[in-house]
Amino acid sequence: MTIQWFPGHMTKARRQIEQKLKLIDIAIELLDARIPLSSRNPMVDDILRNKPRLVVMTKADLADPRETDKWIAHFAAKGLASVAVDANTGTRIGDIASKAKELLHEKRERQRAKGMNPRAIRALIVGIPNVGKSTLINRLAGRNVAITGDRPGVTKGQQWIRVGSEMELLDTPGILWPKFEDQLVGYRLAMTGAIKEQILNVEDVAFHAIRELSGRYWDALSKRFGIEQPPADLDDPQEIVRVMEDIGRKRGCLVSGGRVDLEKASGIILRELRAGKLGRITLESPDDL
Ligand code: GDP
């Protein structure tokens, strides 16, 4: 899915979510466990305002489990409940309904005390493109739901999807725009596949990937590609390119004269990183904050 996020589209996306907020008890904010900061919409606090919220980190199967635990503790310290899941296989998605129930417990008890019988918890999934909204909805539904997306101004025709006995989910998720203000955020979104490479140059994205991986996960990089010499200085672009060339040579990405085809090498680096071939990697740690 390609969405051009012009200001008009952002306003429309925001309005669509605000309309849906009226229908629900809790918002489920999806973040990519590998980049919990960069995959967060810059205005999400403002848009969701006082709605009860559960953070769900998707793609936890690709993320470094130690960092994921740190993020859960970090969010908890800020008063935000969070869980980490693999939406593809459904690992830990059962935690979503149980956490939501926990978060709404008091409100529901108050309703019961007034003699009301609380209906199923109604939830809306929100997040930036490619964070795993459709995958998670299908997993939670236990079947393939035709997710149509919103047409302008249309919030009719939405369906509630039953999740277990106590939760219902809106079948059309809220689509939020990613952050744009910071170039590094853009590169991290591209590295993880959240935004398409066509927007950014593939060699630039791979360059930043190698720079970040050399700093945080040199052992994984070295093992995957059979390279031995880490960059002497992460701030020296020539050293990063040298590592990219080493990888290219190992993978036979050569053009005439024995030069390395950097574009081809970059494609390989990014494909394997995204597929989890380098192991479980998280590019943003609460330790950096
Ligand atoms: P949406 O745009 O937010 O609806 O994102 P999608 O549900 O279409 O997911 C985008 C891509 O991420 C797809 O290729 C999914 O298979 C993949 N994906 C989603 N969730 C997970 C997850 O938890 N783990 C892994 N490994 N891949 C996931």
TrEMBL record:
Main location: cytoplasm
Protein name: Ribosome biogenesis GTPase A
Domain CP-type G: from-to ranges: 14-178
Keyword Nucleotide-binding among record annotations: yes
Keyword annotations: Cytoplasm, GTP-binding, Nucleotide-binding
Function of the molecule: Required for a late step of 50S ribosomal subunit assembly. Has GTPase activity.
InterPro entries: G_CP_dom, GTP-bd, GTP-bd_ortho_bundle_sf, GTP-bd_ribosome_bgen, GTPase_MTG1, P-loop_NTPase
Keyword Repressor: no
Subcellular location, record wording: Cytoplasm
Family statement: Belongs to the TRAFAC class YlqF/YawG GTPase family. MTG1 subfamily.
